[in-house]
Amino acid sequence: MINKLSATLISTLLCANLSGCNTVTEPVNVDSRYETYIQVGQAFKHTHFNNIQGTPITLNPNKNKLVILFATWCSDSQRTLKELQASPLLHDSSVQIIAIGREENSTTLSKFNIDYQLPFDLVADPDRAIYKQYANKGVPRLILLDKHNNVVKTLIGEQANILDQVIW
Predict the structure, then answer these.
(1) Which end of the chain has the least Cβ crowding within 10 Å, N or C?
(2) In this model, does residue 32 exceed pLDDT 70?
(3) DSSP alpha helix (H) spans, the chain
(4) pLDDT-derived band at 26, boundaries 50, 70, 90
């Protein structure tokens, strides 16, 4: 009985901790512990990646870009990607979408994509080499770039319908 109660308590605490995809319990807009290391108007530091198939990809100079920093285990990231699947953004030929898996490798992202069938490039960031240049914590992070790869807006997608704020 005690072991069952302990297991239930541990499980409940773990789920509560993971539900926000980090350890912050306050709303994002009032939490100064979320740091974004790139500001509106600054150039995005990465323009070349290798997707999970190993194919080189480049940020398209003729398109606006939506860069999503996410984690496969994060419920907020999962929700945001599902919302993106139903969004007109997915079919907007003037937008390039790239999703970068924080602390993910090509294998975990490939397995994740079996369920999600995302029609855009996924990039592995197993050691946070990319992520840590843009933020200290919190996923999903959405970074909107213009055609010149300058930041237009940054968003933390911990609430539903974050894509409504994706406007260039």
Answers:
(1) N
(2) no
(3) 2-18, 75-85, 106-116
(4) very low
pTM: 0.81
Q: Does residue 133 sit in helix, strand or coil? A: helix
Provide CB contacts within 8 A for 104, sequence distance 6+.
71, 72, 112, 124, 125, 126
Long-range contacts of 83-92 (CB under 8 A, 24+ apart): 83/160, 83/161, 83/162, 83/163, 84/118, 84/163, 85/116, 85/117, 85/118, 87/163, 89/163, 89/166, 90/119, 90/120
Homologous superfamily assigned to 34-165 = Glutaredoxin (3.40.30.10)
| The predicted structure's pLDDT at residue 30 | 41
| pLDDT(47) > 50 | yes
Cα gap 151→141, rounded to integer Å: 13
Element (H, E) at 125: strand 121-125
The token pair at 120 is 């855009």
Place of tokens 């990809």: 57
Query: Which residue type is seen at 54?
Result: G
| Residue 23, both tokens | 């350890």
Give the mean model confidence (pLDDT) for residues 57-68.
98
Other beta carbons less than 10 A from residue 44's beta carbon:
19
